Amino acid sequence: MPNPIPVILDCDPGHDDALAITLALARPELDVLGITTVGGNSGLANTTYNALRILALLGRPDIPVAAGSDHPLTRKLETAPEVHGESGLDGADLPEPISEARPEHAVEFLRATLSAATEPVTLIPTGPLTNIGLLLRTYPELTARIGHICLMGGAMRAGNWTPAAEFNIWVDPEAARIVFNCGVPVTMIGLDVTHQALMGLPEVDRLRALGTRPGTVFADLLHFFTRFHLERYGSADTPIHDAVAVAHVAIPGLVRTERYHVDVECTGEITRGRTVVDDRGQPGLAPNVDVALGIDRDAFSELMIAAVASFA
């Protein structure tokens, strides 16, 4: 088997972020060098606390966690308590942390980790892109140390936070524009594919039947998440957005992509955060992003159940 891919997760846990972390730590194809946190689904204090609680649940307090930006580059942070609850991770009895966040800012952790790595590192951002935008703006020389940025965010068609925009990109469109145009290989795992990566009440039952604490916690978290989607969209089938980005890095071929030119709307009043995907090949717009379009739902669901089952 090839050497595992070194990765850093940048996230705002978040129910689907929690599953993304679990999948990353479960897959032998990945070597998780650390987790950085950002304000997004909830405030930075909560997202950092949630990341530490997830690591405690999984028995992986050895994974370093560094807290990053508590607000977007130029805007006030707006969170999503109606989706993830006031804590950002409502619905389950998670353990208290057994480790602490590192003292340095996430951007400095990223700088040091990238500089020390013996090969390019893949970044997997699953929240607003503030930390990654700051890294690229502050240390542009480190782009050579980044092998791939596989982000969860954006949409080729309709948004989920506004009619035009997906939440992560809407929160900090200026940072997203930096990332999409940074010159590093970028994959956009947007709503077009994550709305196909569904888990629902049958998966809740399967997780609970594992009979482990992680199984019970993730059954409770998924059940909370399905209730929101049932109330909002009329279906308990729930997109596990963030874990798709991890799955794509770990298992090439699971997600189908096409290469397009993508940019981000930063100034539009009603189109803020829109990821503008050119699928017609306009002259002068060179493709810069691999855009995810399809996934095998059953294979993805089995992957997630197996990931949770790998932790006692």
Question: What would your notes on this structure say?
Answer:
There is one protein chain. The mean pLDDT is 96. This protein has helices at 15-26, 44-58, 81-84, 106-116, 130-138, 167-171, 173-180, 191-194, 201-209, 213-233, 241-250, 297-309, and strands spanning 5-11, 30-37, 65-67, 121-125, 146-152, 186-189, 198-199, 238-239, 255-264, 275-278, 289-295. Strand 4 (121-125), helix 5 and strand 5 (146-152) form a beta-alpha-beta unit. It has 312 residues and is of the alpha/beta class. The chain contains 12 helices and 11 strands. The protein has one domain (5-309): Ribonucleoside hydrolase-like (Inosine-uridine Nucleoside N-ribohydrolase, Chain A, Alpha-Beta Complex). Strands 3-2-1-4-5-6-11-9-10 form a 9-stranded mixed β-sheet, sandwiched between helices. Strands 7-8 form a two-stranded antiparallel ribbon.
